[in-house]
Amino acid sequence: MILVTGGAGFIGSNFVLDWRAAHPDEAVVNLDALTYAGNRENLEALRADVGHVLVHGDITDRALVDRLLAEHRPRALVHFAAESHVDRSIHGPGAFMKTNIDGTFTLLEAARGYWGALDEPSKAAFRFLHVSTDEVYGSLGPQDAPFAETHPYEPNSPYSASKAASDHLVRAWHHTYGLPVLTTNCSNNYGPFHFPEKLIPLMIVNALAGKALPVYGDGMQVRDWLYVKDHCSAIRAVLAGGRLGETYNIGGWNEKPNIEIVHTVCALLDELRPSAEGSYTRLITHVKDRPGHDRRYAIDARKIERELGWRPAETFETGIRKTVQWYLQNPDWVQRVQSGAYRDWVQQQYAA
Ligand code: NAD
Ligand code: TYD
């Protein structure tokens, strides 16, 4: 079996659902603190699946992690759990340091203890896969080459600094203790179960509610976008064949300015759920920019293709259509995640 952390969040829940479909013979124990971003409902399809166990707990709880490793004896630990929203990290960085740095440290130490006591074949087979972000590399100029795995770390936000710190810990536990680690650095994901505080789902749910579509600054910040199922298949490929101690950059070869993303979402909604009041583009509103906003991220994903034969299956056009359709088909999920705490966040972030 495998132990997954953060498997009730956006990417983690997609990963767990895909894993159970791809590996019906291999169970998943899913450790998640169920913060505002974690949602049992994302895993509803696994309700009757005895091969999935959700454990409500914190990755900084060493005794709990030790117990889960001892009881379930996983052959791999796939680590998604994190505080993941840049804007929240600007308002309150403390939780990011605790989960992303202390939490990763706790998992590494627990994994080291468990792995060190395994018999030789199990020891050789064990993997600690750390899921990270392209944001650790900082910001690119318009003409710069995309981020390769050798790019220097230049994190600019509390979120990316905490993820960079966790990447360094993972690297050090390999070099110092020989822990069999793999690290993936991925670009911006989108798709089902994406919490509507991030750009794409926020634009969809606001448009459907007739609310403003808040574009930070001039909207010309560039991100590389990857459909979440492609991220999941890339992680499976790295887990299966990645070289120990290596990092793999994962991207969609889809660099787009934010304003173009927002126009694409509006065009799809105009087609699939037209509004009597005219195109959703009327709701686009430029608002104050994010402090320290990174201008451009881009991923050079040639290493994972060369070594592991992975390429994304979706283009941006196919992936964004599926995503908009998913939100249109799941209004109850959207309504339930827009709880009181969600409204408080929107009020705090967008009131001005
Ligand atoms: P998310 O915020 O949607 O989910 C995070 C999950 O971790 C939630 O289920 C939450 O309850 C859980 N969690 C938080 N703190 C915890 C703790 N202390 N103990 C146990 N569980 C805890 O995040 P996501 O977008 O699914 O991102 C998953 C991972 O992928 C993160 O490590 C993130 O840095 C990385 N990543 C995300 C993106 C992206 O575009 N979303 C891109 C690249 C990398
Ligand atoms: P986000 O989804 O928060 O991801 P990240 O900051 O990790 O890239 O934001 C994606 C881009 O969209 C980023 O450049 C910030 C911008 N953005 C807006 O313009 N308006 C918004 O309301 C949000 C949430 C993001």
Can you characterise this structure?
The structure is a single chain. The protein has 352 residues and is of the alpha/beta class. The chain has a domain at 2-193 and 226-256 and 293-314: 3-Layer(aba) Sandwich (Rossmann fold). Helices cover 45% and strands 16% of the residues. It has 13 helices and twelve strands. The chain has helices at residues 10-22, 62-72, 86-91, 94-116, 120-125, 158-177, 199-208, 228-241, 258-272, 302-308, 316-329, 331-337, 340-350, and strands at 2-5, 28-32, 52-56, 76-79, 127-133, 181-186, 188-190, 213-216, 222-227, 247-250, 255-257, 284-287. It has a seven-stranded parallel beta sheet, sandwiched between helices. A three-stranded mixed beta sheet has the order 7-9-11. The longest helix has 23 residues, at 94-116. Bound molecules: nicotinamide-adenine-dinucleotide and thymidine-5'-diphosphate. Thymidine-5'-diphosphate (TYD) binds next to helix 7 and strand 8.
